[in-house]
Amino acid sequence: MVLSGNVGYEVLTAGKCLNYTARPGTTFILPRGTVDELRWSGPTHRIAVAVHPSLLLTATDETIGQNHIELTEHWNATDRHIMSVLLALTTDLDAGSPAGRLYGESLANALAVYLLSRYAVQRRVPTVPKGGLPRYRLKRVLDYIGENLAEDVSLSDLAELAGMSAHHFAELFKRSMNCTPHRYVMQERIERAKIALRDSRCTVLDAAVISGFPNPSHFARMFRRFVGVSPSHFQSDQTSLLRTAQPQATS
Q1: Residue 24 burial by Cβ neighbours in a 10 Å radius (0-12, 13-18, 19+)
Q2: pTM of this prediction?
Q3: What are 233-246's pLDDT values in tens digits?
């Protein structure tokens, strides 16, 4: 996908010579095994994404059991949905993936499902059963999250616990909990951090690690987003409240 640059380019592929003009957002969608040569008339800034076949094959329940999915060929596509997902993935990777595997896998799965529904030779629009997750499956997933908040929880692990594809799990989880798996994990981590910070002996860094935020700056950013104040401000307020609530000694 082209990030910047308005230039012409020539594509030599399958005995054809194709001429286009690239702009920010211009996207190439190429099947596995495509042989090509591109000639650019000027500089561009681009990102390249290789989609592993297994990601497409396991994206939805409708593809399970198949061994090959082919994408249609596009040399000059403009798709805002693909652009937004790729930019989010790039931003996350450039930052060192501070949110962990769950966030990155959720984005990758969303991209795979979209490619299957819009750009596969045999398009597949995933169907999602009505209702949410069965209660026993939801409890299994929530218990696992609670026991592993400090770990790098993944979407694939949660979907496997629920016994379904990542796409169906994410959709049904959202219906059951009114939020995505990633947001739920973030909320639970912030709640654990708040409990830790109510102890004046606990440092902000300790609270971050305890609640599953190995990146302190990401912890501070997420805490402010969910709580409205910084972790240190929250701890200071809690300490003041505790002192106010304590009975005064009488002489």
Answers
A1: middle
A2: 0.83
A3: 999 988 777 767 66
